[in-house]
Design goal:
It contains 4 helices and 3 strands. By secondary structure, it is α+β, with helices and mostly antiparallel strands.
């Protein structure tokens, strides 16, 4: 991993773009960090920065969106530690 400043990147962007195919490049801009992420010959639909294959399955994305909507609507049940222990048979 290489951490560079925005100025370093601006002075020689092609150097760091080429290097990003072999090395993780992080650009520090003020108080935030940006990363150059190589994606090959296409841009995947996968929203995961690590390109986790779990997110390639549309059913998994649908479950996440459905669950998020349930949380937003308050359709959740909070499990207490005792509930988890009971469900797992750890009593």
């Amino acid at each position: 991993m290489i951490v560079i400043t925005g100025k370093e990147f601006g002075d020689n962007p092609q150097k760091y773009i080429d290097l990003a195919t072999k090395e993780r490049i992080i650009i520090k801009k003020e108080q935030e960090y940006l990363e150059i992420v190589p994606r090959g010959k296409s841009i995947p639909e996968n929203p995961s920065p690590s390109n986790d294959p779990y997110f390639d399955d549309p059913e998994n994305i649908e479950r996440i969106l459905h669950s998020s909507a349930q949380v937003a609507e308050g359709k959740v049940h909070k499990l207490e530690r005792e509930d988890v222990h009971s469900l797992l048979g750890l009593d």
